[in-house]
TrEMBL record:
Native organism: Cloacibacillus evryensis
One matching Pfam family: Transgly
Keywords, in A-Z order: Carboxypeptidase, Cell shape, Cell wall biogenesis/degradation, Glycosyltransferase, Hydrolase, Membrane, Multifunctional enzyme, Peptidoglycan synthesis, Protease, Transferase, Transmembrane, Transmembrane helix
Protein's name in the database: PBP1A family penicillin-binding protein
GO cellular component: outer membrane-bounded periplasmic space
MF GO annotations: penicillin binding; peptidoglycan glycosyltransferase activity; serine-type D-Ala-D-Ala carboxypeptidase activity
Length: 770
């Protein structure tokens, strides 16, 4: 029996093959183990990497709650857009309100497979990563529309691999939250398209001045082409580059069969009609009522809502402005040879209809309508006369126009220098703007009473003198203040609070604020109506005759200061009051005898003449029943009932207090005039001595028709010594007279410069970039 003995040194083929199989198995096992370890390490690293980069990403809820930055839109009273306030010029628009050509163009240019992928394109991402790794940085773009949206909403524009990873993760999340149409709508409303325009609504308005629903094929292609490089392909900057990019987008649309060959041929060489570019200053459009917008911005919007809400919150601000009136006002003021302001207001509500604070907002932010404290001159006189009416005096009563010389040497004169008319009616003194009569009437009224009435009807200035110079308009106040005061004469005695914002809505349409008229009783209806009637004499036969608006009752008053430094006209028609101020910022004289009638009145007349064609205004002022006044035809010279030969006018007087006798100068009975209990009276001021009254008083039948107001008439309610006691002239107590230090301009010779600096401080305060 033979035995086979194993020889360990036998290297047979079979044995060798067995050894080789064991080695390969070991090798693969080792490699597999190594790969598993490396894979595990990579997986763990990826987990930590993803955990790290996702830690700072918004959650699903954050993404749902996100609100994009939207421009705040300012509307006029009729719903017309005045301007927009923004850091990112964006107005949201629904997808179905966008031209289908725009939708196709953006898809063709940026992501033609948008409706097919799930937010990312893996193959494109891998290709981009290879290129990025090769170049050691993010060089290759592969972003879908969803990824771009994620970047626009939540990430920066830095080109790094980490940012791209975050972008992809957010894109996948967005796709799980929103539908494709929702994503596309969000994208079209957030993409930057150059020149400060975010989204297709802003871009359509910026480049073509039209709604995105009306975009044509070529216009859509131009806008879609902007996304890749807004500045490079802007049609405002380079027509050639813009047309080249448009051609690329249209070729893509043609290749995708989204436009026909005929459409392509029709639009490929067409040159677009571009919109006029609008200059902006500090996010305020220079073509959108800049002085008015600046007024509401710094007075109300920013203090109440803050920069973030106003410039990014998409608010809808409905104002009292009438944009047509505003544009006309801006046009007129821009042509003035000097600086100035114009404000228009509804006297019955206080709604500001137009506001222009200077000739050029870009050159000067100083709003002269609300910030320029200027002397109104004779435009202040109606407040003096209204105070007299409140004391029971009437427009038919008389006062002296005679020289004045006070103990301290102050001697106010008239515009006509040494010419004096003697005894005149109050309506004549006001219509002719006689200075000496106004000073006398102020002495009769008492400066304290004048100041009290001024405050009641809306004068708020701290620069209101407490001496007789107040009668000549030496107070320093703003045009808006002056307008509010005159509104009380137009609305039958109410002080109105001027306002500019009617309602503010959130971007969701919720009402955040509502404002309406605020009126308070200031003077009696009788005083207001009588004063308005006296001011109608100014525009009928006084210094303001050229202001008369045909077919409308018109009232107003001119104003001029010393050396023709300031020129004013303030007045109105039913339902509208307007103030015009003209003057140099450095207070240098206007020159050329630029009175209110010469410089300011024509501006007022041009604006009001236009306004009445645009507004549905009544022809006559309303007179409330409790005013208890009656229209009386009187003689301008004597104040008695007008005879056939009288220079006559119609005046509203308190019922039961109108003269009954016919003017004895022009055919009436002298006896009847003497017997008339309501006959006009001569009001003598404390300064008027017997010599003056005898020299200048009017005589009827050789007798003076004169009296001095009694103590009750002059002292009631006064907070100062009675200026007109029942004493002889020599025993009258002295009154407070103006001093050289009362000039408000000496306190602030460069007010406009200070205001320009203040404007810049406000921009810094609210973090608005110049």
């Amino acid at each position: 029996m033979s035995h086979t003995v194993r020889n360990d040194t036998d290297f047979s083929l079979e044995h060798k093959a067995k050894k080789k199989k064991s080695f390969v198995f070991s090798l693969f096992s080792t490699l597999a183990l190594l790969a598993a370890v490396v894979g595990a390490v990579v997986a763990v690293a990826m987990i930590f990497f993803l955990k790290d980069i996702t830690a700072t990403l918004p959650s699903y809820q954050d993404m749902l709650d996100h609100e994009p930055s939207l421009a705040t839109t300012v509307y006029d009273r009729n719903g017309k857009v005045v301007t927009q306030l923004f850091q990112e010029n964006r107005t949201w628009v629904k997808l179905d309100a966008i031209s289908p050509w725009m939708v196709k163009a953006i898809l063709a240019a940026e992501d033609d497979s948008f409706y097919e992928h799930s937010g990312i394109r893996p193959i494109a991402i891998v290709r981009a990563l290879v290129v990025d790794v090769f170049h050691r940085g993010a060089k290759q773009g592969a972003s879908t529309i969803t990824q771009q949206l994620a970047r626009n909403l939540f990430l920066s524009n830095e080109k790094t691999i980490i940012r791209k990873a975050k972008e992809a993760i957010l894109a996948l999340r967005l796709e799980r939250i929103y539908t494709k149409d929702q994503l596309l709508e969000m994208y079209l409303n957030t993409i930057y398209m150059g020149h400060g325009a975010y989204g297709v609504e802003a871009a359509s308005k910026t480049y073509f001045a039209k709604s995105p629903r009306n975009l044509a094929i070529d216009e859509s292609a131009i806008l879609a082409g902007l996304v890749a490089a807004p500045e490079k392909y802007s049609p405002f900057r380079s027509e050639k580059s813009s047309q080249t990019r448009k051609a690329y987008v249209m070729r893509r649309m043609l290749d995708l069969d989204w436009i026909s060959k005929d459409d392509y041929d029709s639009y490929i060489d067409k040159r677009p009609v571009l919109a006029k570019r609008t200059a902006r200053s500090n996010s305020i459009s220079l073509e959108g009522a800049p002085y008015f917008v600046s007024y509401i911005l710094f007075k109300q919007l920013l203090p109440n809502y803050g920069t973030e809400k106003i410039y990014r919150g998409g608010l809808k601000v409905h104002t009292t402005l009438d944009i047509d009136l505003q544009k006309k006002a801006e046009e007129i003021v821009s042509k003035m040879p000097y600086e100035g302001a114009l404000v228009a207001m509804d006297p019955n509500t206080g709604e500001i209809l137009a506001m222009v604070g200077g000739r050029n907002f870009d050159k000067s932010k100083f709003n002269r309508a609300t910030q320029a404290y200027r002397q109104p001159g004779s435009a202040f006189k109606p407040i003096v006369y209204a105070t007299a009416l409140e004391q029971g005096y009437r427009g038919v009563d008389h006062i002296l126009d005679a020289p004045l010389l006070f103990p301290n040497g102050w001697s106010p004169g008239n515009y006509t220098s040494n010419k004096f008319d003697g005894e005149v009616t109050l309506i004549t003194a006001l219509a002719k703007s006689i200075n000496t009569s106004a000073v006398r009437l102020a002495q009769i009224d008492g400066v304290g009473r004048i100041a009290d009435l001024a405050r009641r009807i809306g004068i708020t200035t701290p620069y209101l003198p407490d001496d007789l110079s107040v009668a000549l308009g030496t107070a320093s106040l703003t045009p808006l203040e002056m307008l509010v005061a005159y509104a009380a004469f137009a609305n039958n005695g109410y002080k109105v609070e001027p306002y500019a914002v009617k309602e503010i809505l959130s971007q969701r349409g919720e009402s955040l604020e509502q404002n309406g008229p605020k009126l308070a009783n200031a003077i009696s209806p009788a005083t207001a109506v009588s004063m308005r009637s006296m001011l109608e004499q100014v525009t009928s036969w006084g210094t303001g005759t050229r202001a008369k608006i045909p077919n409308y009752e018109t009232f107003g008053k001119t104003g001029t200061t010393n050396d023709w430094t300031d020129a004013w006209f303030v007045g109105g028609v039913p339902g509208l009051v307007v103030v015009v101020y003209i003057g140099n910022d450095n207070h240098k004289p206007l020159g050329g005898r630029s009175t209110g009638a010469v410089a300011a009145l024509p501006v007022w007349k041009e604006f009001v003449s236009y306004a009445v064609t645009k507004m549905n205004l009544p022809a006559a002022f309303s007179i409330p029943g409790d005013a208890e006044v009656e229209a009386v035809r009187v003689c301008k010279a004597t104040g008695f009932i007008a005879a056939e030969g009288c220079p006559a006018t119609t005046l509203l007087l308190p019922q039961g207090h109108a003269p009954t006798a016919v003017c004895p100068w022009h055919g009436g009975s002298l006896a009847a005039a003497r017997a008339d209990d309501n006959a006009p009276q001569l009001l003598l001021a404390p300064i008027d001595d017997e010599t003056t009254s005898n020299k200048y008083a009017m005589r009827l039948g050789g007798e003076e028709q004169a009296r001095q107001p009694n103590e009750t008439e002059t002292a009631a309610g006064q907070d100062e010594p009675t200026p007109i006691p029942q004493k002889k002239t020599s025993e009258k107590e002295p009154v407070k007279l103006p001093s050289a230090s009362s000039d408000p301009y000496k306190k602030d010779p460069s007010q406009h410069t200070d205001m320009e600096a203040k404007y810049q401080e406000l921009l810094k305060k609210y973090n608005i970039i110049e």
